[in-house]
Amino acid sequence: MNKKGQSISINTIIVAAIALAVLVVLFVIFTGRLGIFSTGVSQTTTCENSCKALGMLNGDASDKDECSRNSRTYIPGTYQELGANRVCCCLKQ
């Protein structure tokens, strides 16, 4: 019984799997499908959602000095729904 067989080594299989994963990631990046994930992130960056994520009550727009005068917490960041020179202020529970 003289059996001769040719098999693929485990190293070749691992390298092929890694190469396939890299190709999929490159395909996603270059076809613009990555934008699907970034739109979900940009929709959550509102002043109100930031306050809720920190366990505080509603957020509103005011200037930075007014936040501290009214015992509110200033939340740094850029929020599109707030006007120019306005910051996000949250009310503690």
Could you please describe the fold and organization of this structure?
This protein has 4 helices and 3 strands. It has helices at about 10-30, 35-45, 45-55, 65-70, and strands at about 60, 75, 85-90. The protein has a 3-stranded antiparallel beta sheet with strand order 1-3-2. The model has no long low-confidence stretch (mean pLDDT about 80).
Q: What's the oligomerization state?
A: single chain
Could you tell me the strand content as a percent range? Answer: 5-15%
Main pleated sheet: 3 strands, antiparallel
Query: How many alpha or pi helices?
Result: 4
User: Mean of the pLDDT scores?
Assistant: 78
3D shape: elongated
The residue ranges in which pLDDT falls below 50 over 5 or more consecutive positions are none
Q: Write down the secondary-structure element order.
A: HHHEHEE
Q: Structural class from helices and strands?
A: alpha+beta
Widest sheet: strand ordering: 1-3-2
- State the separation between the terminal residues, measured CA to CA: 81 Å
Query: Level of helix content?
Result: 40-55%
Rounded to an integer in angstroms, the radius of gyration calculated over CA atoms is 26 Å
Secondary structure layout:
Blueprint lengths: L9 H21 L4 H9 L3 H7 L5 E4 L1 H6 L3 E3 L11 E4 L3
Short descriptors:
single chain, 93 residues, alpha+beta, 3-stranded antiparallel β-sheet, 4 helices
Structure in a nutshell:
With 93 residues, this protein is of the alpha+beta class.
